[in-house]
Specification:
Distance between the termini: 20 Å
CATH class: Mainly Beta
Number of helices: 0
Oligomer: single chain
Structural class: mainly beta
Shape: elongated
CATH superfamily: ApaG domain
Strand content: over 45%
CATH topology: Immunoglobulin-like
Radius of gyration: 15 Å
Number of domains: 1
């Protein structure tokens, strides 16, 4: 996953919220501080890349959510993470 600050001020990633749904429509919500043990601060135009995973009981599912960010002016805001597909290796072409 790659995050890029497309705003005009620096922002710190405070927390994340994921909604993970498998092919049988079972949903799990995951919330927590930072990502992979970090709370990076991104300057305008700067990016942060990390690798993570999710365990689902079907070969295919989806994931979407949001990050809570803290701008350098002290305001917090949420940024949406659009839905994307999760799939086991060699399931989708």
């Amino acid at each position: 996953i790659t995050l890029v600050n497309r705003g005009s001020v620096a922002a710190k990633l405070l927390s994340r919220r994921w909604i993970i749904t498998d092919a049988d429509n079972r949903t799990e919500e995951v919330e927590g501080e930072g990502v992979v043990g970090e709370q990076p601060t991104l300057k305008p135009g700067e990016g942060f890349r990390y690798t993570s995973g999710a365990v689902i009981e079907t070969p295919v599912g989806t994931m979407h959510g949001s990050y809570k960010m803290l701008a350098e002016d002290g305001q917090t805001f949420d940024t949406d993470i659009p839905q994307f597909v999760l799939s086991a290796p060699r399931v989708l072409h």
